[in-house]
Design a protein that fits this description.
The protein is mostly beta strands. It has strands spanning 8-14, 17-20, 23-26, 32-49, 56-65, 76-80, 85-90, 95-97, 106-115.
């Protein structure tokens, strides 16, 4: 169980896989959505790349969700971050964190979003 300050609700977007031109890709047009309540999404770092023709920024976040939340590799996470709704890609896989007492067990996900 997470702390009571974990009050955010996130939308998990899960797309089925399809074969397109010989490659397996996600079919985002036929994605399904569900809500996970009791989360906290916090920024971790950001980078800016000026070397290319256009500036590109990368923003990383960590999400703390309830234990055994229905989040899988390949999902996207949509969340209101103080008036701006962001859609994140999972950076890696969701993983379970177990506290010594069990009181703050959680599912943690590293999230990333690009701009530019």
């Amino acid at each position: 169980m997470l702390h009571k300050w974990c009050r955010q609700s996130v939308t998990v977007i899960r797309a089925p896989e399809k074969v397109e031109r010989g490659s397996v890709v996600r079919d985002w047009e036929n994605a399904r959505k569900h809500t996970v309540k009791g989360c906290s999404v916090q920024p971790t770092d950001s980078t800016r790349d000026f070397a290319k023709r256009e500036e590109q920024s990368t923003f990383r976040f960590r999400m703390f969700a309830p234990p055994k939340a229905d989040i899988k590799r390949g999902d996207r996470i949509r969340c209101d971050m103080g008036g701006k709704v962001l859609t994140f890609e999972l950076d890696g896989v969701p993983y379970q964190r177990f506290s010594p007492t069990g009181r703050v067990d959680s599912t943690q996900c590293d999230l990333i979003v690009w701009e530019g």
